[in-house]
Batch of 2 targets.
Target 1
Amino acid sequence: MHEQPIKFYQTGTFTVGNRLLPPEQRTVQSRIKRYNSLNSGHRACQGCGEALGARYCVDAAMEAANGRLIAANATGCLEVFSTPYPETSWQLPWIHSLFGNTAAVATGIAAALKVKRAKGERRHIRVIAQGGDGGTTDIGFACLSGMFERNDDVLYICYDNGGYMNTGVQRSSATPPAARTATTPSLEGALGNAFGQGKFLPEIALAHGIPFVATATVADLHDLEAKVRRAMEFHGARYLHVLVPCPLGWGFPSHETIKMARLAKESGIFPVFAAESGEVVASAPIRRKVPVEDYLRPQKRFAHLFSPTLNLAALARLQELADRNIRKYRLLPETL
Amino acid sequence: MFEQIEGSRAVAKAVALCRPEVVCAYPISPQTHIVEALAEMVSSGVLSPCEFINVESEFAALSVAIGASATGARSYTATASQGLLYMAEAVFNAAGLGLPIVMTVANRALGAPINIWNDHSDAMALRDAGWIQLFAEDNQEAVDLHIQAFRLGEELSLPVMVCMDGFILTHAVERVDLPTQAQVDAYLPPYSPRQVLDPAEPVSIGAMVGPEAFMEVKYLAHAKQMEALRLIPQYAEEFRAIFGRPSGGLAHAYRTEEASTIVVAMGSVMGTIKDVIDEMREAGHAIGALGITLFRPFPTAAIVAALRGARRVVVLEKSLAVGLGGILATNVRMALAALPIDVYTVIAGLGGRAITKRSLHALFRRAEKNDLDSLTFLDLDERLVARQLAREKERRKSGPVAENLLRDVGVIAARNY
Ligand SMILES: Cc1ncc(C[n+]2csc(CCOP(=O)(O)OP(=O)(O)O)c2C)c(N)n1
Ligand code: SF4
Ligand SMILES: [Mg+2]
């Protein structure tokens, strides 16, 4: 196809559009020759952050692997909306086995490829595994930790929408405190999900000392692709944790997915960073700090914090969590 | 070549001769010696190229095998008991995906109470998971069945469980004829998968199927298993041609000619049963035995053919369907439903309880006189049971059942034999 260069000018947002960048810096997605690994026509909800995140991640990994990539996928929204037979959105070899064994299945794929390589067959094929937060931080946790600990040659991508969305929005160990889900109701003034529970898997991944761990959001797709690209430069176990807002489960209009992801990052409640061999090497600084309240207020899952009365105590605790992230990951210039 | 060798090591050598490409291991008795021996062979380079993966659970062991098999690698793992149950979800999944993984099950009881000794509860619990299930009578057969298992599974795209009695076979040292690499290579062609994860030809494996086709998918899995009934005798015959001995097949009849009583069983207990049959035949009893090698698919026609001349059949099994009785016996009864044959169920050897010749002599003689209940628990200590029942009647908080029973039995080690 013929490409014609057009000149564009930036108009005062923080978003540097692809078209303002030199061609080599543009995203894989903006290229004519993108892979469309997760092709259009799938059944994700309108505005699904997971569909967007997966599209960028898998295509970037495909680009890095020269199109020679195999994916293992956990049960969850991504698996369900992308496939019911006879249709499939996947333009790469793809396997779904179970909800909780995706990392192990990927280990098996990588092991098979290693043997085939030793036999001079099927060279230069890379492996990714992907699942939702439930499939990763809860039921798939043992297999994932095993895969990390053995340093198997797999990039595992977790699409974190803060709950079991495919089964109707139940609490997972990645659900934020105070969030209402179907199993952490906020009836009669109850708080929703409890404070002081749950886990932030990127830090646990880091503790395994694996070659690469990073977080990202769908608000900064350049950063997301760059992290996939960097991850693919390593061999061994790698982990990418992507915040993917879910309009259905979080309760916000489907055109505000990117905005939600950006507010999560700019408030500090979701720290964006990268780590290599167990050490944090880079954090994505907050550009224009917002109070956590700005992130929470538009989401129905936090509505009980704002009405009928303002729950100042809960809001202060959530703000403290964000402030702790800001200190810990040095997300603001004054914390550097 | 004949070798005096432990069952587990013999099986490990047989598996290695099959050139597995990925072996997944997680320790559980009495299966451990098999994967330990394979670890040695991989680490010393005897088995190469092969990836030996120490996983963090049985669920992972089979899941790694699933990934490897779907990528076209010949994959093997071994487990037993709690380990088999721990991987149950993946057991069904491997069958549903049509992946010809071979797995040794070193049969062991299921807890609670935890018990490491042999019975068939583990394999029976997963009998309907879609795997082919073979039961070895002795270590020679265990070796041979593994070689046949890869051939069969890969031809049909079905996973195969090779069951061998824990400790009784896995830890027994006996003479085994180990095949040569050339023999195994002549028998077992390289694995050529029907579907494989390959960027050159991207496919989606394992996606959702709704009511519009699920029945048909399951029916085809059933039909595939039934196809094994045709292939297994053929593969056993080819095996005899290359390896020079009969091994495998659907079932082995032993002195069933003119037998009015036939004992049916699976696994190593067939050895004791055959000894008893010999002695009874000597004494003029018309008795024989049928050892079932293939439990899934169930070889109904072969079993009917072998048993149709009998007046009564005694099914002796090392498993219990709690609340019903026998599992193997239920299957045999179904096969014989149209025939005027009395079928007796005998539950024996649970949790490693010894099945002795003396008990079998008495049992078979009672059967001959039609003096058996339709369900018998062999060598059940009825006094022990009665005491516990009385205790429970007396007091609501009567304490843990297993502990009470063992107190009544007394400390085994201090007992004077
Ligand atoms: C063993 C098992 N338990 C439960 C389920 C039901 N289940 C399927 S998808 C799902 C939720 C997935 O949540 P997550 O991993 O966060 O992915 P999401 O749908 O949110 O993207 C659950 C609970 C299952 N399929 N298997
Ligand atoms: S429920 Fe959420 S994660 Fe699932 S498809 Fe819809 S928007 Fe995406
Ligand atoms: Mg989720």
Target 2
Amino acid sequence: MSERDTDTIAAVITPPGRGGVGIVRLSGSLAFSIAQQVASKVPEPRMAHYGPFIDHDESLIDNGILLCFKAPHSYTGEDVVEFQAHGGPVVLDRLLQRCVASGARLANAGEYTERAFLNDKIDLAQAEAIADLIDAETTAAAKLAARSLQGEFSERIHNLVSALTHLRMYVEAAIDFPEEEIDFLSDGKVAGDVELLIEQVETLLAAANVGRVMRDGMTLVIAGRPNAGKSSLLNALVGNESAIVTDIPGTTRDVVKEQIQLDGMPLHLIDTAGLRDSSDVVEQIGIQRAHDAIAQADRILWVYDGDADPEHRSFEESNLPPHVPVTFLHNKADKTGRKIGLDANKKVFAVSAKQGEGIVELKAYLRQTMGLEQTTQGEFLARRRHIDAIERALEHIRTGKAALHEGLAGELMAEDLRHAQLALSEITGEFSADDLLGEIFAGFCIGK
Amino acid sequence: MFHADHYAVIVVGGGHAGTEAALASARMGQKTLLLSHNIDTLGAMSCNPAIGGIGKGHLVREVDALGGLMAKAADRGGIQFRTLNSRKGPAVRATRAQADRALYKAAVRAALEEQENLDLFQQAVDDLIVENGRAVGVTTQMGLKFRADTVVLTVGTFLGGRIHIGLENYQGGRAGDPPANALSLRLREQPFTVERLKTGTPPRIDKRSVNFSVLEEQPGDNPEPVFSFMADRSWHPQQIPCHITRTNQQTHDIIRGGMDRSPMYTGVIEGVGPRYCPSIEDKVVRFADKDSHQIFIEPEGLTSNELYPNGISTSLPFDVQWELVRSMKGFEQARITRPGYAIEYDFFDPRELKSSLETKHIEALFFAGQINGTTGYEEAAAQGLLAGTNAALKAQNKEAWCPRRDEAYLGVLVDDLITRGTQEPYRMFTSRAEYRLMLREDNADLRLTEKGRELGLVDDKQWQFFEEKREAIAKEQQRLKETFVRPNDLSIEQAHELLGDELRKETRAIELIARPKSDYAKVTSLAVVGPMHSDKPWAEQVREQVEIQAKYSGYINRQVAEVEKSKTAEAVSLPEDIDYALVKGLSAELTEKLARLRPQTIGQAGRIPGITPAALSLLLIHLKKRSA
Ligand SMILES: Nc1nc2c(ncn2[C@@H]2O[C@H](COP(=O)(O)OP(=O)(O)OP(=O)(O)O)[C@@H](O)[C@H]2O)c(=O)[nH]1
Ligand SMILES: [Mg+2]
């Protein structure tokens, strides 16, 4: 039966949680070609290869070990590749996403073992346990999926699905009932709706955030008054003396950029010139650059000298853009004696940049604000499935829109929308042709 | 008493399913008997006088591609032809013909009488003869017994029918016909699951009492589309238009006033009616904000004085029908010739059928048509053809055949029925077909005729026509692939006309056809390309085919890839004796469902509502263990 299902599946096979090493496994006919793309090399079967794993934009995902197994001498009996990377959920997720973007699909619960059994790689006695395994993993996956689908995200997905269904209802009704005075394809209704739908999906994806943030990382801009200790903080976070620190206000003139990793996610740190009214031409330019950087920030770390300006009054007057979230950093806690970390009101975070106190806590806090902290790896992956489905749906809706605009007939758009719905039904459950007809008959007075 | 002759196939019922079944089996060289309670009603259109429409026209073309009759009879009897969705793409274009009942029936009768290997016999069938779980013949009303290897039942037109007009109701088959009660009772004793459905018809109107001068006319298309691949316009009789009127506020008031005597709204009728064909009272109640509904006035024939007002199906009392009809424009003086009515009838749960349409409970017994919960002549004809074919195959101990969902609407129809069953009279819509872009009217022959030939359904004449056409398509495609158009072959105007832009590099003619603004005619009118020279009857079909394939190629390739993926699941069959209770890990609910429905393949199992991918994995594992 080895000729069945030759699609290539991918999954993180190490247990959820923050382990030291995590493994992403690929099985199927594309496994080796994906390994070639990710690691620029396919080592001899069973030979470990250490090297960089590269994303499609050439950026580094991680350094790790690659192992290849040639069919039929593998766990599943198919070509198998294993990437061993550092165990944080973001690295593993990026790696997984990279594999999916290169042609694999996310594996179902128990699917490796199932393939192994169907390809005669494990015997009947061992196989006895598979049914239980599939059952358990399916239940666990369902639970995790349900958890990652809670709250606002879930509501937005459901809104999205109903908007898509609604659009399909119009398109399909126009196709199947041309005599019913309901040709929305030609009257512009559908063209307008598809536009709105695309916007809706894009906003949802942006809100789900994981996709963009993980690919591009987040940009943190360190801003504040001169001498607040911004450059000291940058150095403390990076772990070396990359910015000049002096006790002269106005030391930093240009923006200083550094990059660190948080759970494998790139974090772009930008140190800026202290904000103040200045008559110095060079400093003025530096301050302008600081404002430019602030405008691009995903988050501002507003550093203030806890000793000189305990109420951080300085912040009010610095006219920062209103939509960027701000973390207030009470610096020089060694002088003020303030308790390191987040205060009870969760408004101010106290550190001592100079002593390096509170830096570990600050990183943990940043992780949390980026939505990486509270999710376990399992939930993370469950969410990845959803985002993956939504991204595929978006792709189809876009092609559908293009088909409609090229003046081609509605049935091509209908085909794309069907695929979009198919993708989303991985989240929401089956939506059959008959369900769609039901929507049509409930929505329009149809029939002779 | 046994009749002397032994038949390979007996077909019971002479409607659209029965006639196609009998013809198919006889074409395959099997000695076939068609039993009907009235030979004069063979091929009768018992409901509205039209063939085809969206999804349905596709089925008619498939029947035609497999050597069946319906398309040809429609060409002989069609008095108004239109292509629906003509402004949309080819996949969803569909042919529809308004038919003259008498001409259509005559064409069917003639074909049946000319068919070799086919005997007709007039007598109602009262019983089925079953021996050791296998159907071996039938007993007629007068006690005559016929023996056969296989039996096809197409007696669905209103098994156990009950007709409702207002709060009155009585037993009856299709208006005028007796219901097939004796057989219905006997079948109810068999282990089939019987369910009930409902449908309705409008009152018919005397043409002479209608004022056409105030009505909107709806002419047929010019040139007229043709149904059969083998036919041409010269087959068509005289063409006449249809008309359109509308309900109005007054009509709706009359309807609301009669609601207290509606069998549907007073709970007398229990059967479920079709969602896509609501009665006029249903439309008025459910879509109260719509102040008018279109009514298509269809002629019943060139020589008939009756009209079929499509859109006012009703079971309201006769006095209300009379008033509501007369409230509409053009109908002020209209006389009703037959009252409208609702009818409730039995059908057998089609999930108890195999994809061959053989019943799972009784071997060698096949069901086709309305008995399976479908509605429509086209759905019936297609099933009839399939059941007749498989009955003939079974009589020869050959393996059954059913097209897959990606091969034919017929495949979609059967697969939907056997995996999902139906809660309302099932009719075809293109949205039911996931491979809609591949399943077109225009390529029904390319999809099915070769298989039809292999099965013995397609005669020499059709086969030769098809082979020539197919070869010509390949040749023309090759020519257009090898012909290059260079930027300086085109004037600026020509380039704009074809591309809306300039031509940047040397391009194959076939690729130019695929561009959104371009088409076959434009490209072959370029001097460098030139037309295809042929005066063969299929020449136009070839040009059309080349254009459509070029235009759809990207999407079709994607669908082909999708089909390839699903094929493996379709190929894994589930043994008939599988004990689902032994499948480890399967929930009680799914175990019960699978045990009851007994799908034939993993693919079918996957399409049963509620069956999850994990459940399919468990089934695969179980199968593997069994075979170990
Ligand atoms: N006691 C104490 N001193 C600090 C701390 N952080 C920074 N300093 C001192 O504050 C002075 C200014 O530090 P910088 O990091 O250069 O401040 P800045 O905000 O970058 O200043 P500009 O670049 O001039 O805007 C230096 O003398 C630092 O040693 C701290 O946590 N505790
Ligand atoms: Mg500085």
